[in-house]
């Protein structure tokens, strides 16, 4: 089964041999795609917490869907953590659009190895 995808490729200028390309998908199976911002503060553990912010991966608009996400926390108490997961399904909001809930645990890090809980809701998308 083939799914038609459209978008564009961004190539940064310059002669850097380690440069990368970014693919921006604008439609999936002929449906426009969208993504959400997410941000928050982790739980307070081992005397500190961390902040994080990121953007979900694109998903089709107008159909039931979820989003993958990944982010890096702030550098606090000499270390950082990574977060990664999948949102819950779309939750309609008054006035149109929708949000997604997300939660999970960070990777283990720190002089005293530990992890933090995180969670919240994405911003609204139409």
Largest sheet: 4 strands, antiparallel
Distance from first to last alpha carbon: 28 Å
Number of strands: 12
Beta-sheet strand percentage? 35-45%
Explained architecture:
The structure is a single chain. The protein is mostly beta strands. The chain is built from no helices and twelve strands. The chain has a four-stranded antiparallel β-sheet, with no helix packed on it. The model has no long low-confidence stretch (mean pLDDT 88). Pfam families: YmaF (PF12788). It comes from Cohnella kolymensis. InterPro entries: YmaF.
Summed up:
With 126 residues, the protein is mainly beta.
List the helices and strands and how they pair.
Layout lengths: L4 E6 L11 E7 L2 E4 L2 E5 L9 E5 L3 E2 L7 E5 L9 E5 L4 E2 L5 E2 L1 E5 L11 E5 L5
Antiparallel strand pairs: 1-2, 2-3, 3-6, 4-5, 7-8, 9-10, 11-12
Top keywords for this entry?
single chain; 126 residues; mainly beta; 4-stranded antiparallel beta sheet; 12 strands; flat
